[in-house]
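We modelled the chain as a single entity of 211 amino acids. Its sequence is:
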Amino acid sequence: MLFRDRDDAGRRLAERLQHYVGRSDVIVLALPRGGVPVAARVAESLRAPLDVFLVRKIGVPGHAELAMGAIAEGGAVVLNDDLIASLDVPADAVERVKAREQQELERRQQLYRRSAAPPSVRDRVVILIDDGLATGSTMEAAILALRGLGPSRIVAAVPVGAQESCARIAAVADELVCASVPEWFNAVGQWYDDFSETSDDEVRRLLNARR
């Protein structure tokens, strides 16, 4: 399956989530920035409110795209200890990256919400969306953080994901919806014709349109 762009991916993902359409207890949360255009289309289809749940990947020093873990708002941290050990990443280097990503998480929190409080998810069905699952670290961190906020159900939903990562997320979410799980997977971007970076302005525009 090849998606034209994130909006197209959101349309296709929404087809797999129609059993949640029109429910008053459903909220769609996107992992920014790339998950927001996907989630906006899903939220529109389900007639559900849209917001973000802030998560930052902890990248390997010198190889930032390779995730050795992730942090999420609320203080959840997920680390891939096996990867960190295999690459011999020093503990102080991990802490430096964590601190830098915490600063960026706080910057985005201010940028996307201003002074508004995060939406309440207690006793609600949370559909948590990203544009794809590579390592799954950011999605796992988000799920772990959300658990402490008392939702009735957490549905992890992505257009495409690696087999191993989908299995990992299925074990921690209440439900996993993945439109495509290809046998061979290298990177999320390979499954999109247009995988250009989502800007902060686009995130704010999409959030304001659905709030």
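As a brief sanity check on the tokenised model: The domain at 6-56+113-210 is CATH 3.40.50.2020 (Rossmann fold). The chain has one domain: 6-56+113-210.
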